[in-house]
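Tokens for chain A. Residues wanted.
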């Protein structure tokens, strides 16, 4: 599984406060300069430790660096700040997935789907977990729904034909 910044709905949270610093951190993240990205988000959080966007982005950066416990900590903290943050549930679900905690990941992905039931990425990740649990019917449902929303989602289409 590859983390992708495009799977997060964090850009709705960006406002004029520290926008340039956040955009610089995002640029570093997209370029794969994870240490610089981490430094940038730490700088922002030193100024405002409740900056939800910087916290989620730092969690993504920690995930890229395979520092999953740190990513999990940022995901927990971001949910304390905003208990209905879709991006926070995705981050925590992905992190649990990477740690092999599939039950916890599925709980977070289900919470994310309560917020946005059309999120093809979350549907696909849920399907992946159901496959690991050999719950092929549930996996098929997730992949089929994902493919209905995003016909370009080849991964879902391939899995739905194999499930």
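Reply:
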């Amino acid at each position: 599984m590859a983390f992708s910044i495009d799977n997060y709905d964090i850009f709705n949270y960006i406002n004029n406060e520290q926008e340039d610093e956040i955009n610089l951190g995002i640029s570093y993240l997209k370029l794969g300069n994870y240490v610089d990205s981490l430094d940038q988000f730490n700088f922002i959080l030193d100024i405002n430790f409740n900056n939800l966007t910087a916290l989620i982005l730092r969690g993504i950066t920690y995930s890229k660096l395979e520092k999953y416990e740190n990513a999990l900590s940022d995901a927990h903290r971001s949910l304390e700040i905003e208990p209905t943050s879709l991006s926070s549930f995705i981050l925590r679900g992905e992190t649990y997935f990477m740690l092999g905690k599939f039950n916890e990941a599925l709980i977070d992905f289900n919470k994310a789907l309560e917020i946005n039931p059309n999120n093809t990425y979350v549907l696909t990740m849920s399907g992946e977990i159901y496959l690991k649990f050999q719950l092929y019917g549930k996996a098929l449902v997730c992949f089929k729904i994902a493919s209905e929303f995003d016909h370009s989602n080849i991964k879902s289409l391939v899995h739905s034909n194999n499930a």
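The mean pLDDT is 88. The longest helix spans residues 34-47.
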